[in-house]
Amino acid sequence: MKAQDIIIKPILTEKGYDGIATKKYTFKVAKSANKTQIKMAVEELFGVKVESVNTCNVRGKMKRMGRNEGLTSSYKKAVVQLTADSKAIEYFNSLS
Fold it and tell me: pLDDT digits over 15-46, tens only?
């Protein structure tokens, strides 16, 4: 898998914004990716040093439109902690 296939998009939530100050970033990643692949992909794409990666599978939520109901798609979320001497990711600096 390429690095661009592993990291799908950043997750921008209130809890995610709180982690930017401590160099913790949250990404939506491919379901088949493991922690080692996620670490290498972040280091390759953003040119930073990763200290740790925590992942969790997020289940889809039940949604209704009128009498029709269904589930939103489930996905895998990764929280990436950078090392203290690593530079910050520029994309997130412009947001906070």
Answer: 988 999 899 999 999 999 999 999 999 999 99
